[in-house]
UniProtKB/TrEMBL annotation:
Membrane topology recorded in Swiss-Prot or TrEMBL: Peripheral membrane protein
SUPFAM superfamilies per the UniProt record, alphabetical: P-loop containing nucleoside triphosphate hydrolases
GO cellular component: plasma membrane
Protein name in UniProt: AAA+ ATPase domain-containing protein
Main subcellular localisation: membrane
Amino acid sequence: MLKKIVKAKPLEKRGEYPFNLAWLHQTDELAFKKPLTFLVGDNGVGKSTLLQAIAIQNQLPQLTNERYEEDPEYQTIAKLATYLKSHWDIKSKQGFFFRADDFISFIRKNRRLRKELENELDLLDEKGVPKLAFERQPYQNSLTALKLSYPKELHQLSHGQSFLSLFKSRLSPNSLYLLDEPETPLSPQNQLTLLYMIDEQIKQGSQFIIASHSPVLTAYPDADIYAINPDEIRQIAYEEIENVEFMKNFMADPKRFMHYTFNQ
């Protein structure tokens, strides 16, 4: 289990993002005492950046199998990762980093790969290559692996169904999972399904660190919650999450919110 992240050396003077985040300069370490930790806060405060830096620092692959160094967006975050050090009790070599923004592109890539493999096998059929020929095996093995992982093509499912299918297929015990707003493609009901999957993996020794805006996910009864604001990061209770308080007030009197929103 990942126990904490600490600064390995002083950060650069404040300049370009993410080194202009004040809370980053004020925080020397962040402890993970429970198998599930949530990072909450407004857009732009650095939740995703922190997750990405932890992933790069621990060489945790992306769920989409994209390489960090091939994405210019990760270059500055990779620089931040060099300032961090991870402390483990037993280091996990399994798991992944997942960013909800990458989900649709992964679905398209999966569909394209499946089609390319099928086309290659069709060409070999046209050439009269026998079904058991060695030449067919790389394509057939890859296609079989895809079908076993995703029995129904992901693009034929709804966004929520395909996400849950993908997520379930890639989970394994004793792993570290860093998830950036996984609630994005999910209805509230499917968020509960995701939470059930997470709980099942926690029981098998896995750890999750999740950046989220979801009042459903963050209600998990035995999780630590860190709120990140521009000046600090601090541990809070579920009831103190701004989104939770807002949704309680909104659901208590939605007409009042609509009135003040559209009649100012």
